[in-house]
């Protein structure tokens, strides 16, 4: 169920994110900002099953709206233009981004009341952990 992801999530830790950004081709200056930014993740479900996922920080706010299993065009926080599809697999929200012949997956799951986002590019895995704001 997507409902368990709904809410405002505050990032508490980020591991290996610089290596992940390098792996997907993010430039140095953008990585510097990305490493310092601790965005909030806001997840809502709108009418007709449209899911809205907003990443909000002092640096930049990026929002994507989608329906599960329906491909859409996404512009990422680092300005990549991707063809993205989000599926629900074994309780995880799996976001697959494809661009320029490359592909990355972001798997989000709720574990012990925390939202764990695994960013996977080849053999590079970054783990970002969020806690729900009251």
From TrEMBL:
Keywords for the protein's UniProt record, in alphabetical order: Retinol-binding, Transport, Vitamin A
Keyword Transport: yes
Functional note: Cytosolic CRABPs may regulate the access of retinoic acid to the nuclear retinoic acid receptors.
CDD domains named among the record's database cross-references: FABP11 (cd19616)
Stated name of the protein: Cellular retinoic acid-binding protein 1
Gene3D superfamilies xref list: 2.40.128.20
Gene Ontology molecular functions: retinal binding; retinol binding
UniProt superkingdom: Eukaryota
Biological source species: Monopterus albus
Domain Cytosolic fatty-acid binding proteins as annotated: residue spans: 7-24
Family of this protein: Belongs to the calycin superfamily. Fatty-acid binding protein (FABP) family.
Pfam family, one: Lipocalin
